[in-house]
Amino acid sequence: MNATMRKTIVTLVTFLIITGLSFSSVNAESDLVLATATTGGTYYPVGVALATLTSIKLTPKHKITMRAITSAGSGENVILLRKSEAQLAILQGLFGAMAWQGKGKYEGDPQKHMRSITMLWENVEHFSVNPKLAKTGNINDLKQFGSQKFSIGARNSGSRVSGETILTALGIDPNKMQLEYMGYNPSSKAMQDLRIEGMNTPAGPPVSAVTQAYARLGAKGIRILEFTDEQIKQVNSEFPVWSRYVIPKGTYPGQTEAFQTIAQPNFLAVHPDVDEEVVYMLVKTIYENLPFLHNIHKATRAMKLQRAIVGLPVPLHPGAAKYYKEQNITIPNDLMMP
User: Fold this and answer.
1) pLDDT at 90
2) Which long-range contacts (CB under 8 A, 24 or more apart) does 57-62 make?
3) Domain total of the chain
């Protein structure tokens, strides 16, 4: 599919959601809200694609509709699920593990109001900085940031929590940095305008906010920091959800070298009160229409039925488990609710 066609599809998808021309019905059996993140990352366009696919395939016959909404990311999405203001949400693997186990941000307060549906794609860490401050080119360069402004992510976002978790594990105190709390697009714009010296924008590559910064600043005006093998071990000391990820050269405008970074999985979560048959039809629709998602965003090309439950940090919803059992996928005990 060429760039023009892909742009047309994305425009159509967005138009369908915004205008409501997705065969929605006031008598819908299930009117589902999917919480994503800010518009500059990967969560939102993939969420819009999932919502459009669901509405096209399931509304006419089953009266199931879905709409994607923006949010501050994983942190707010956990809250939206708890309050039933969203029935579905895209979450970082780290956030799901913390919330379910009652650790980190949720110390002593486990969040049990969520179930897993499927893994989606890998959330690739993009710590981008002004090359003048990249002395070694790896994440330890942030130790020397001092009074330089760095956008860690929106205040209630998963980006902020994952970023602070990574830095803390590496012995970098975020409180000693001059942090800014902005979403992806505002961070990119601030970096392009030289108002900040770096930004944290984890998402499936290519990340539009990073693409925009590369296009404006040029490959010599921005640097994605790398991680050594030893640093990966340190990052995984408490929550072992990250693995090596290589961002190939050419992913971003003018990028002539590959970057050795890390990634954690993202997954689709659902409130446990959503009907079993509805969740079953959702996951079935997703895996019977993967080419549609692949054409909307490259990140979804990592989705395969054989890897649907790999690394899930939260037990499966019974509707999802039903579908995977039909597909002869072996489900480990820790992903099954009693």
Assistant:
1) 97
2) 57/285, 57/289, 58/281, 58/282, 58/285, 59/22, 59/23, 59/24, 59/25, 59/28, 60/23, 62/29, 62/281
3) 2
